[in-house]
UniProtKB/TrEMBL annotation:
Organism: Aromatoleum diolicum
Subcellular location, principal: membrane
Protein localization: Membrane
UniProt entry tagged with the keyword Cell inner membrane: no
This protein's name: Sodium:solute symporter
One Pfam family named in its UniProt record: SSF
Family membership: Belongs to the sodium:solute symporter (SSF) (TC 2.A.21) family.
Length: 488
């Protein structure tokens, strides 16, 4: 019966996605939902950006193992990213009326920077989307008690997400995100109430976690720990800002004010609600310590779903797995669409400059299919945990794409030469340190970002000999956007 409910829910999701496809007439409709989304849908879709397998299964398992110190990157860094985007990036980027984030790099720095940063963005999604596909495989495997293997579950999950994302694009992502957010909130709050009661009450769970040292958050007062703390929070806090899925959600808003408010509300909602799965998972330590001990040694991501299957009634199982599938699919759809449209718009578009919009829309859809196949293959062949895949996803954008974006918006003298120096230096330092000193006190990707800042400053302040500096009118346009934001 539980499997029947899950199948019915998947079919409803596909139905909503296919209905959304009727709204898609142009590439802008497909990529940015025609820039028509109201505040409540923008808030829901921003909330769903990060609320995926990582939040329900990944960080809850990490919390049981390491406490809050293991969660510097998510939810703290992830929430910081969305808040920073709402405060400093949403308004100027929305005003530019772009289709993708890659378009910003072209407008500000030229074609070469556009291609390099777009490639970095596309590569960063490999681990992020693969984490969602891995989680779908895990869910189907658990639901069928092993009858469906992890690999077969990954293929089924990828197929469902692909079907409803393929035709409706951002309209599908937005409408299914809204439906799925409602299921997530109702489902997880209900489970938290039920499981908390079984564990002896909220106070009992919190006291147990506190006594076990799980609420220790701040780093030790020593250089190595402070650097690890900053790198943990800023890898996702900064590295996730130059991401197409974050940009396309704010860019789909009906107006500039909704873009800003929706991003801030979605980011704040994510931070608050991310603690609900932590509470549910930690309750397992009181309800069934043997189950926790068993899966901590083999796969701690199984603790939460196994607790629900073995200790709750059918209705609670339906609510939990409905919420879990909602969380995974809402993230998977947006993160499947984002790299696909970036690749087609910012890398392929230059190869087919005369292609009509209708034909380009179908080319974009074919890229979505190709990326889904690549991601599924990668997910089936990696040994990385869900939490590990997500943490690693943003290293490449932190080292290469963040500095050109932030400096381009807020420093008038940022030039094409500075951007290229930043990308090159950030990439080289990051990759070299990953090879020679992966466990260094300063993490390689964080060192790459610092090198990128040096590259940007040096490349922009030195005589512009390698390439022409950025056209003045573009820089002044961006600067106007910045001052307009500050003046409100």
């Amino acid at each position: 019966m539980l499997i029947g409910f899950v199948i019915a829910y998947l079919l409803v999701s596909i139905g909503v996605g296919l209905y959304a496809a009727t709204k898609v007439k142009t590439t802008t409709d497909y990529v940015a939902a025609g820039r028509h989304l109201p505040l409540y849908i923008v808030t829901a879709t921003v909330f769903a950006t990060w609320f995926g397998s990582e939040t329900v299964l990944g960080i809850s398992a990490t919390f049981i193992d390491e406490g809050l110190r293991g969660l510097w990157s998510d939810p703290f860094g992830a929430s910081l990213c969305l808040i920073l985007v709402g405060l400093f990036f949403a308004r100027p980027l929305y005003r530019m009326n772009l289709l993708t984030l890659g378009d910003y790099y072209r407008t500000r720095y030229g074609r070469t920077v556009e291609v390099l940063c777009s490639l970095a963005i596309v590569i960063s999604y490999l681990g992020w989307v693969a984490a969602q596909i891995t989680a779908l495989g895990l869910v189907f495997n658990i639901l069928t008690d092993g009858a469906i293997s992890n690999e077969a579950g990954m293929m089924i999950g990828a197929a469902v997400v692909l079907i409803y994302t393929l035709f409706g694009g951002m309209w599908s992502v937005a409408l299914t995100d809204f439906m799925q957010m409602i299921v997530i909130i109702i489902g997880l709050f209900y489970i938290a109430w039920l499981v908390g009661d079984m564990a002896g009450g909220v106070g009992m769970v919190l006291n147990h976690a506190s006594e076990a040292g799980k609420f220790n958050f701040l780093p030790a007062f020593e250089a190595k720990d402070i650097i690890a703390f900053l790198a943990g929070i800023l890898t996702m806090g900064f590295g996730s800002i130059p991401q197409q899925d974050v940009f396309q959600r704010l860019n789909s808003a009906r107006n500039e004010k909704i873009a800003v408010r929706g991003t801030l509300l979605g980011g704040s909602g994510y931070f608050v609600f991310a603690f609900v799965p932590l509470f549910i998972a930690y309750s397992a330590a009181l309800i069934d310590p043997e189950l926790v001990a068993e899966y901590q040694d083999s796969d701690s991501q199984q603790i939460l779903p196994q607790l629900i299957l073995t200790h709750t009634p059918l209705f609670a199982q339906v609510m939990f797995f409905g919420a879990l599938l909602s969380a995974i699919m809402s993230t998977a759809s947006g993160t499947l669409l984002a790299p696909s449209v970036t690749f087609s718009e910012n890398i392929l578009r230059g190869t087919f400059p005369r292609m009509k919009d209708h034909s380009f829309l179908w080319l974009t859809r074919s890229v979505v299919v190709a990326f889904a196949l690549l991601i599924t293959w990668y997910a089936m062949n990696t040994e990385e945990s869900i939490h590990g895949m997500v943490e690693n996803a943003y290293k490449v954008t932190l080292a290469t794409a963040f500095v050109p974006l932030a400096f381009g918006l807020y420093w008038k003298r940022a030039s094409t030469q500075g951007a290229l120096a930043s990308i090159l230096l950030g990439l080289v330092v990051w990759v070299l340190l990953e090879i020679v000193a992966p466990e260094a006190d300063v993490p390689p990707h964080f060192a790459g970002m610092l090198a990128g800042i040096i590259g940007m400053l040096a490349g922009s302040l030195l005589p512009q000999t390698l390439v022409k500096p950025v056209h003045g009118h573009v820089a002044s346009h961006l600067q106007t956007s910045h001052h307009g934001h500050a003046g409100h």
